[in-house]
């Protein structure tokens, strides 16, 4: 499980696409405290499970939908998928917050979130996650995007990332409650 890194990463100049409206969004202009969840790719089962866990942890802690002001941390999903398919998976998973597409992976690069070698992508824990899903009868989608891209979690405060979790494998995401607690600590 990745440990949080205390960082100061300015997001000025990073423009992503609102997956619902198709309009550009400047991350540095989003106020308040936000939890950023960067997907590996939209068909990544561990990522989908993590999104649900973050949403549940936010609900349990009283955080929730994206908010530009106030002490309540917002939730922002970022993926490099095209806006339409990314918005569709977010709706399917019940994601309450903003959904942003980063097709050029500008945010991924700014945060130092790279690609993993195949042996880390197909780690024992990741394979076990998929095997358990198949055993439950879950139908798995074939990925159509870069499966080696890693994801991340971050706490952004007024357009500056202050905490960053960088998993080494797809199933190595931080505890959702810990990410929400870190965001709430910044929110005051």
Number of structurally distinct domains: 1
Question: How would you describe the shape?
Answer: globular
What is the strand content? 15-25%
Q: Radius of gyration, rounded?
A: 15 Å
The name of the CATH superfamily reads Glutaredoxin
Provide a count of the helices. Answer: 6
CATH class identity: Alpha Beta
What is the arithmetic mean of pLDDT? 86
Sheet having the most strands: 8 strands, mixed
The class by helix and strand makeup works out as alpha+beta
Helix % is 25-40%
| SSE pattern | EEEEHEHEHHHEEH
- Quantity of strands, as a count: 8
Terminal residue distance: 26 Å
CATH architecture: 3-Layer(aba) Sandwich
Which properties best describe this structure?
188 residues; alpha+beta; 8-stranded mixed β-sheet; 6 helices; 32% helix
Present the secondary structure layout.
Elements: E1 5-10, E2 15-18, E3 24-26, E4 33-38, H1 45-61, E5 74-79, H2 83-93, E6 98-101, H3 106-110, H4 118-121, H5 124-135, E7 152-157, E8 160-165, H6 176-187
Helix pairs in contact: 1-6
Task: Tell me what the structure shows.
There is one protein chain. With 188 residues, the protein is an alpha+beta fold. The chain has a single domain, classed as Glutaredoxin. It has six helices and eight strands, in the order ββββαβαβαααββα. Strand 5 (74-79), helix 2 and strand 6 (98-101) form a beta-alpha-beta unit. The protein is globular and about 45 Å long. The two termini are 26 Å apart.
